[in-house]
Amino acid sequence: MIQVENVLEKIVSLLKASMQTKLDAIKLEEGDGLTLKAPRDNEYYIHEIDNIPTLSAIIVRPNATTVIVPGGTYNEDDHDITIIVIVRGKEGDISKCAQRAYRFTRAVREIVLDNPTLDDTIVGFYAKGIDYSPMMADGRALLMTVNIGVIAKTHGTN
Length: 158
Fold this sequence. Notes:
Elements: H1 4-30, E1 44-45, E2 56-69, E3 74-90, H2 94-113, E4 122-132, E5 136-137, E6 141-157
Parallel strand pairs: 1-2
Antiparallel strand pairs: 2-3, 3-6, 4-6, 5-6
Helix pairs in contact: 1-2
């Protein structure tokens, strides 16, 4: 069985390496001048966090693993994973915060789903769905989170 932690770390590495290039490509395609900075390397997590980052963060966390072909010399698993996009914005700028969240979500989906085979153990990513949270405000800042569901199909030998 390919351990879920290894899958999460590979997804984070892929996102770190590709995020800024993808955001720049989306900006060029949209042509509206909205510039987005990728989260800093220390703002990608494979676990929940207790402090909200300054502008944006990405959390990649497992939900469940289903063993498709168990044990022996070959195994195949489906890892149900949620990629959480967290975007903060200035109070009173709801549309800009939402637009940033939508662009980050698009970037994450395109990066992950356009790389169906990360290596010889991750053989496919499949989209499950997207859940957008309501915008939240604390009197100083806005916060929006988006949960992107994917299945990472893995196989390997023991």
